[in-house]
Design brief:
Layout (H helix, E strand, L loop, with lengths): L1 H13 L16 E5 L7 E7 L2 E12 L10 E6 L16 H16 L9 E3 L3 E13 L4 H15 L1 E5 L4 E10 L7 E8 L2 E4 L3 H4 L4 E7 L5 E7 L6 H19 L3
Parallel strand pairs: 4-6
Antiparallel strand pairs: 1-2, 2-3, 3-6, 5-6, 7-8, 9-10, 9-11, 11-12
Helix pairs in contact: 2-3
Length: 257
């Protein structure tokens, strides 16, 4: 059955269409973004791309800096893939999928310098702000990478510092001081199936992928992060085409912010 589905998908792609009638580089509709979806987090957002829905919360807590970066705060990204979002997900410790999802989101934010980590330092060598980003898919209908990356960025934009007296954090006290974002990296995952390239795969198309490249780009189109996935190696020419698609579609997603 899987071979038959893959053959059918490739046949459609060769005719410049897909299972749901989209063109190869069309995102599903609607693409929706909502800020402030929970009051318990310092920042939160929900993103829907077609039937895929992801919620992200941001918590700000204090901690000790790492020895090699005594004057810098940090981010910690985690993803929990719950069975309610996809029956193939299992409860328990994060699996490979959850770890990779968190890593892709982390890399785009970290490598773009979206946050100035030095501004997260409270007292060098003693205390820093730690930005904890929790990714929670509500419904996995494909392309969690792009939905999660966009939701994480939106949640960071929404985040405000909790009350802090220099020693303790008061989460019941809200402030108007926003978490300052320096850059807005947008991630677009480009999929290779056969010799064709698509974006925003649904779950059936994800089963047929040969290669995957998540392209994170800046407002000016410059690259800040790449993450390769899939079993098939990519040629230099294929990577170049995927980069062009990723950067161009990034402009489309950026408008949603």
């Amino acid at each position: 059955m899987e071979r038959e589905l893959r053959s059918h998908i490739i046949k459609l792609l060769n005719a410049d269409t897909r299972l749901d009638g989209r063109k190869l580089t069309d995102y599903r509709k609607p693409i929706e973004l909502e800020y402030g979806v929970t009051k318990t987090a310092e920042g939160s957002a929900r993103v829907k791309i077609g039937e895929t829905e992801v919620m992200v919360g941001v918590k700000l807590t204090t901690g000790e800096p790492y020895p090699d970066t005594p004057d810098q705060g940090t981010i910690i990204v985690g993803a929990e893939l719950l069975p309610m979002s996809n029956p193939e997900f299992e409860p328990g410790p994060p699996g490979i999928q959850a770890i990779e999802l968190a890593r892709v989101v982390d890399r785009g934010i970290r490598e773009s310098k979206a946050l100035d980590f030095k501004k997260l330092c409270i007292k060098p060598e003693e205390k820093i702000w730690m930005v904890i980003i929790d990714i929670c898919p509500i419904n996995d209908a494909g392309n969690l990478f792009d939905a999660s990356s966009l939701a994480a960025l939106a949640a960071l934009k929404d985040a405000k510092y909790p009350g802090f007296d220099g020693e303790k954090v008061d989460y019941k006290k809200k402030t108007d001081k926003k978490l300052e974002l320096e850059k807005l990296p947008i991630a677009v995952t480009v999929i290779k199936i056969g010799d064709k390239f698509i974006v925003d795969p649904d779950t059936e198309e994800e089963e047929a992928i040969d290669g995957r490249l998540t392209v994170s780009s800046m407002e000016d189109g410059s690259l800040c992060a790449l993450q390769k996935g899939g079993d098939t190696p990519l040629t230099e020419e294929e990577i170049s085409k995927m980069l062009d698609i990723g950067i161009e579609k990034g402009k489309e997603l950026r408008k949603k912010l």
